[in-house]
Amino acid sequence: MKLIGPRTPLCVGLARKLECDFVEMDRRIFPDGELNPRIVEAPREVLLVNTLSSERFDPNRYLLEFYFSIKNLTERGTESIVVLMPYLPYSRQDAVFREGESFTSKYVLELFRDLGIGTLFSVTFHLHRQQTGNFVPGITLHDVSGIDALRDFIKKRFIQEEQPIFIAPDEEAEKWARRVATPLNGEVFVFSKRRNRSKGAIETQGEIPEGRDVVIVDDMISTGGTIRNAVNICRVFKSKKILVCAVHGISSQIPFQDIDIVTTNTIDNPFAEVDMTPYLAEALSQYL
Fold first, then answer.
1. What separation in angstroms does the CA of 78 have from each of 48, 60, 74, 120?
2. Quick one: which of 8, 89, 2, 11 has its CA closest to 49?
3. What is the CATH number of domain 2-144+275-287?
4. 50-68 tens-digit pLDDT
5. Looking at per-residue confidence, does 79 or 288 come out higher?
6. CA–CA separation, 32 vs 220, rounded Å?
7. Does CATH place domain 147-274 in 3.30.70.1290?
8. H or E stretch including 167?
9. Claim: this prediction has a pTM higher than 0.85
10. How many helices (H) and strands (E) does the chain have?
11. Domain layout of the chain by residue ranges
12. Is the dihedral of CA 68, 71, 77, 83 positive or negative?
């Protein structure tokens, strides 16, 4: 099996960890925005990987590059393709909330299945409302935990003399915060979001002990609004050191200048200190 992907640190590093040959995907973009990924070799067995950047975050381009590459390889004789999407786009639409909406997470998985992909690996995807990631028949979705990678980083780099408290910035993030905190014997506090009836805006509410080091844990930083609200509460309670941890760093904007932010390298961004390649290599080695 050979790994095909763009020449990025994650792809090259993962090929090295798996001890397999690396074949570059040339990500060509024409002046009008059209894409034409070029892959000079079509091996019989392929691990196909693609990556995103927060600088020009474009999940639609990312998906089309996968689509074109799979069609390219299968038409040229590739017999087996395993897909690794470090970030699974459209997974936040993991249910139909209002009549007429598209069930986009389901459609993305069906797209890959209909291309002949039976196995897809991703990192901490956002399918909160599904009991399993395998809710689309014919394709198996493997979840590699970016939360475990953050936990290992925090244990080595952040916890010193004083045990921090761990904060979920909203109810959906509680499971991530507990997964980090429990092995470290940390205390977890869960903030909640409520609509201010007079203003109509969503507000974050919560209380924590005063004067403690805190670690805020979430699966992604997108606009930064949820993190910003959580940090403001921490400041009200005179928190000392504040560390924000997220698996996926979609935004390259800094919510605050004086706090530490750490993400994994599933998306190339200025805060991507945590390397996912050992965790991905371990999960893939058990399957390939």
1. 11, 24, 5, 17
2. 11
3. 3.40.50.2020
4. 999 998 899 999 999 999 9
5. 79
6. 31
7. no
8. strand 165-168
9. yes
10. 7, 16
11. 2-144+275-287, 147-274
12. positive
